[in-house]
């Protein structure tokens, strides 16, 4: 099924997957191809995308998901893709995000900083 995850600035992920786990506002949702149509609000958390090449993870700070039988579209407030981050870059992102959070920037930049911080912590945990 086609999976698209976008935020206000860019497309974060676009590709095929065999399963998606979403952090729904009322609980976690597991989506397989052919799922009945639905729309749901998302809370802060990780989206897991199962692909033939291996699982991929995208952190979202919240948003909206539209599920159709042939695909999923996620409109995220803030989204950060975790694929390709190594320990050094994760630590740099964590430090920078932590510093920005202490500055209490505007709401959008604060949410982006929080996303980077949570992503770096997930990577440290071995996700």
Describe what you observe in this structure.
This protein has 127 residues and is of the alpha+beta class. It folds into 2 domains: 80 residues, F0F1 ATP synthase delta/epsilon subunit, N-terminal (ATP Synthase, domain 1, Sandwich); 38 residues, no CATH class. Helices cover 28% and strands 42% of the residues. It contains 2 helices and 10 strands, in the order E-E-E-E-E-E-E-E-E-E-H-H. The strands form 2 sheets. It has a 5-stranded mixed sheet, with no helix packed on it. It has a 5-stranded antiparallel sheet with strand order 4-3-6-7-10, covered by helices on one side. Helix 1 packs antiparallel against helix 2. The radius of gyration is 14 Å and the shape is globular. The mean pLDDT is 83.
